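Translate structure to sequence.
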């Protein structure tokens, strides 16, 4: 059973990576993400936010943290809530 999950997870991560790249190259366009892809995006945002909050406070870091919260707020409801960590 686990052998089937690993290729599925790898394919899902590859799709998410490509879709995020496409989003960055075409701002304003709509992209569809399935439930698994949305969970990966939410989790990555949370991990990146935690990493940022562990760094020395700078205006750039604060801006990136705010951007993470903004992006997380655009994700549809029903996903695990984003972490609300503050400086």
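Result:
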């Amino acid at each position: 059973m686990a052998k089937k999950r690993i290729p599925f997870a790898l394919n899902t991560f590859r799709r998410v990576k490509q879709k995020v790249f496409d989003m960055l190259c075409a701002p304003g366009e709509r992209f569809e993400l399935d439930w698994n892809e949305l969970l990966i995006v939410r989790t990555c945002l949370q991990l990146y936010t935690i990493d940022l909050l562990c760094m020395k406070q700078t205006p750039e870091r604060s801006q990136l943290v705010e951007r993470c919260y903004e992006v997380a707020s655009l994700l549809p409801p029903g996903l695990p809530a984003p972490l609300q960590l503050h400086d």
